[in-house]
Amino acid sequence: MTTLTRRKPVYSVAQSAPHQILVCKACKHKGADCAPGHALMKKLRAAIAAAGMAEDFEVSGTACLAGCVPDHGGPCVLGWRASAKATWLFGDIDPGQPIDDLVEFSRLYAAREDGWLSGRDCPPRLCDNTLARIPAAMIVTREGPVQ
């Protein structure tokens, strides 16, 4: 009888801060790392730190977030997540553009207990590029809800 070993999935990203911003760093359609994703991740880390939010936000790269348009070749996909909060996914984010709106969204997201914002609350560029707003997962067992 063989023992099965559990491997950490390639898309698994440990979270060490209360909030996490995930940046797609793998161009699955190109079969290579995503240079624009890596550049955006570095730029966003610096901006979050400069805004005084480094303790509240971790900026991490992750495997393909499946929200890009393969033929575009540059724009990135980003996600915001936190325990007991809605998860947000934005696409077509150009790493060459100013990232003030990404930092502003981070402030808004952190300030909401449940992470739920309406489209009109988002910075305009993100409102136009929203791919998904996913409610926080609520797991219910016989003993009651588990978050």
TrEMBL record:
Q: Which Pfam families match?
A: DUF1636
Q: Which domain of life is it from?
A: Bacteria
Name of this protein: DUF1636 domain-containing protein
